[in-house]
Amino acid sequence: MEELMNELTPKFNPTEVEAGRYEKWLEADVFKPSGNPDAEPYSIVIPPPNVTGKLHLGHAWDTTLQDIIIRQKRMQGFDTLWLPGMDHAGIATQAKVAARLAEDGILPQDLGREKFLDKVWEWKDEYAATIKEQWGKMGISVDYSRERFTLDEGLSQAVRKVFVQLYNKGWIYRGEKLINWDPKAMTALSDIEVIHKEIDGAFYHITYQIEGSDEFVEIATTRPETFLGDTAVIVNEKDERYKHLVGKNVILPIINRVIPILTDDHADMEKGTGVVKITPAHDPNDFEVAMRHDLPMINMMNNDGTINENGGKYEGLDRFEARKQIVADLKELGQLVDIKPVRHEVGHSERTGVVVEPRLSTQWFVKMDELAKNAIANQTTEDAVEFYPPRFNDTFMQWMENVHDWVISRQLWWGHQIPAWYNEAGEMYVGEEAPEGEGWTQDADVLDTWFSSALWPFSTMGWPDENSADFKRYFPTSTLVTGYDIIFFWVSRMIFQSLEFTGKSPFHNVLIHGLIRDEEGRKMSKSLGNGIDPMDVIEKYGADALRWFLSNGSAPGQDVRFSYDKMDAAWNFINKIWNVSRYILMNAEDVSADAVSSALTKVANKTAGNVTDRWILTRLNDTVERVTEQMDKFEFGVAGHILYNFIWDEFANWYLELTKEVMFGEEEAEKDITRAVLLHVLDQVLRLLHPIMPFFTEEIFEKLPNTSGSIVVAEYPKVRPEFNDDKASEGVAMLIELITAVRNIRAEVNTPLSKAVPMLIKSEHADFLNAVSPYISRFTNPSELTIAKDLAVPEQAMSAVITGAELYLPLAGLINIEEEIARLEKELAKWQKELDLVNKKLGNERFVANAKAEVVQKEKDKLADYQEKFDTVKARIAELKEN
């Protein structure tokens, strides 16, 4: 006993409990699939973190929810596979490595492509090791024997195959189009890699002179530097103000280039001056106008955002410095009419944060029309992906219905190099392997990271080898968990690529969670300095407490606010269970498995045990049923709330206290039954909690007298119908309500529990209440206890109405009749409010027609209970007023 007490200290210490636990799990290989051919497979592929640094809270949320799912399914007997891996994150990783080299005064160009890539692989190995260490601290139960990386040879083969097949179908093409350009990373970006931020800017009103006259037209622009690339101005053909100018030319100020005046519907007569400058190589709308009118397209900017040779005297200036000088020069010429401040949205690079430049560029694109059409059609079939919450299906569908061609080439070195080769004759070859012969040079660009990540669910399973054992058994995967912020980036692309190359959806379910915000509801960011490192939280509170917070923080799809108060509450909950376990193990360390089984059978058969034993086993059944139901619906917050209430309120605060009537008594046979029930409920509680809080549940599980092996592979609790006892459940519920009512009355009149007072209970269930009177006496301390079906109600008494009974405490001299009437009138109002709510619900024809019969009956039972309480309180008020 002393050794056991030393192992289970009074305070839960997460550092001690979690130390070395993860390594033991890995050594025991408990995370690998069972290999049972008769078990139903359940698979998850982890949303791969990029190898740019530490895990953030959002990824900790992903992994926690997935680990909860996979641990529960493993315990339920599924053949579970959770496959881990990481993403190479082209732009972000290359930028990080380049920044590290810059600290030593080294540029990537100084090293060349191959040597620079060697440095990036060193970075990858360093940070991948860090991420795996952090995964271990989180406790995630992945199968490391199957770990993958998006630049693995197997995944690279899949990428090349997909590229070539789409190219041969005409769905990948190379062309010159307007794209989003990141001048800092010096690469193209897709539309969804651009974040639109509201910033302060200005409308610059500039005049262009009409060629051969003294007349001017006025235009307004937020980017005056782009006039260097203007190739036309347009007006609306219905605009009477400018009909006489159509067909003439204007002279661009400073550079004196002559460009035509055309008509196009893009010019809005009601907006600004009605005259619009056209810069086809630097504006998406202008690009479309240029295509309609066959206008030249002049790129006036270098890759790094400086003005190129088409900018005349401004060549070499940064785009924003050029803006300042151009504005000054226009002002000196008298062609700057006005500058009007404006607050407007401007695109910024998701990766580097700089203002994105629309820019004409030759890139590789994926045609999205057919791929999108297939994904949309699939959502009406049996193979549709189920989104949780369902509203995110609409988000997915809207994006697919409005998707543009996807620019997939990136001007980087780190990534999957595009499998296209060129020779001096101007020929191009696209293939999975390099062409034979000399003189071929591979395209220097790499593919967008999301191109390879889109293949993740099936490329990690061995595809394109469709005979791969993992692909045949575990694909499609069962569930994906991710944040709503990457539905467009990743989820959508996985769906349309999987449908195209495997003919199946990549997963059955997608659980969407929100974003983690700070306590003020702000998004966490470096600029605000409000980020939270999950490893710091684990260091202080332990992984179990963090996982409990992350799983209980919000409903699916909703954001959650991080709070240290909530972390304190999580730690306190674990410590409560820790001390409950300590109490039970102190009293039941020598109980054998046979003794537990025999005792539970006797309780179920009502040949031994008392009503509180049957009550807690009934409540356990109800908890198992409801928790399992909510977990299956991914409602982890609801499941956690049910578990919390059962463990803290019913098991710890009530059952453990009630057992002291037996444990401090003389009957050893009764103690044996109670010990067995305590052990069984604790065992089941640990199993229910394990998917959410794996570390401390394993620690305590190991110390139970009848367990062997790891809780990781222990059987998940099931409802045992033989334990259900509705009468015991109702009876103990009445007992608890009665004890609570007495405590409340004592508190109202400032009468401590140590002072014995007379108590009268009027109830149709007098026989039951007399049978449990030892509990009533222990917890209410009556000087006299009278329980009867009918008794004289004292005139001066505090009273309470509970389900099935009326309680009276004759406290003459301690109560004021008027105050008691006022208190009862408040209680009457409370019951009236409850009656109104239930009557409203039952008066709703749609509710009565559509709700389950048992739900409707439950409301009817509430109505009868509330009505009885209302009537009893009303009668008591009348009695007091008469006296």
How widely separated are the two ends? 61 Å
What general form does the structure show? elongated
Compute the average pLDDT: 90
**Strands, total number:** 29
pLDDT < 50 stretches: 1-6
Topology:
Blueprint: H1 2-7, H2 14-18, H3 21-27, E1 41-45, H4 57-75, E2 79-83, E3 85-86, H5 90-102, H6 108-111, H7 113-138, E4 148-149, H8 153-168, E5 172-182, E6 187-189, E7 194-210, E8 216-221, E9 232-235, E10 249-251, E11 258-263, E12 276-278, H9 284-293, H10 319-333, E13 336-349, E14 357-366, H11 369-378, E15 386-388, H12 391-401, E16 406-407, E17 409-410, E18 420-422, E19 428-430, E20 441-442, E21 446-447, H13 449-453, H14 456-459, H15 469-474, E22 477-483, H16 487-502, E23 507-513, E24 516-517, H17 534-541, H18 543-552, E25 560-561, H19 564-588, H20 593-605, H21 611-632, H22 636-663, H23 668-689, H24 694-703, H25 726-748, E26 757-763, H26 766-771, H27 773-780, E27 782-788, E28 798-802, E29 805-809, H28 817-842, H29 845-850, H30 853-882
Structure report:
This protein is an alpha/beta fold. Helix 21 runs antiparallel to helix 22 and helix 22 (636-663) packs antiparallel against helix 23.
Give a nutshell description of this structure:
By secondary structure, this protein is an alpha/beta fold.
What attributes does this structure have?
30 helices, about 900 residues, alpha/beta, disordered N terminus, seven-stranded mixed beta sheet, four-stranded antiparallel beta sheet
